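Course assignment 3, question 2. Fill in each field.
Student: A.L.
Task: Predict the tertiary structure for the chain below.
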Amino acid sequence: MKERELHLLELRPLIPSAQTAENTRPDELFQNKTLRPVIKLQNDLLVEAFRNYIQKHKNVFHDFSIEKRLTYIENAIQKDIKFRNSLKGMIIGQFTLEEYRIYIQNSSALNKRMMNLVTERIKSNIQLLEPQTTS
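Answer field:
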């Protein structure tokens, strides 16, 4: 295995709940073996990217109720194509060459899984999106 791939794989966190059975579909297998660990690894970067997104959009996010904030997160990731592509790049850049080859065979379905996971991860970190106070 090449050095880049080895380092990428070593960096990824283990996710015991993402273990898969023998009869797991290929997309689900890729989600559990690649997407979940990469997205967990990139958590801080994804949260910071969303903080930046909020700031670039005049901080209106902070004026919303929790329910509207969750909808705002979904809409930002699903409808803002530039932002969505930026998030995808943060994840795809952590793939090994073999993973990338698998990804490009079914990128449409895998992108949907990827963005659903990213959406849920950002929602689960909603408390980290509160305005930063400087002291």
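Instructor remarks: Residues 107-124 form the longest helix (18 residues). The two ends are 48 Å apart (CA to CA).
Grade: pending
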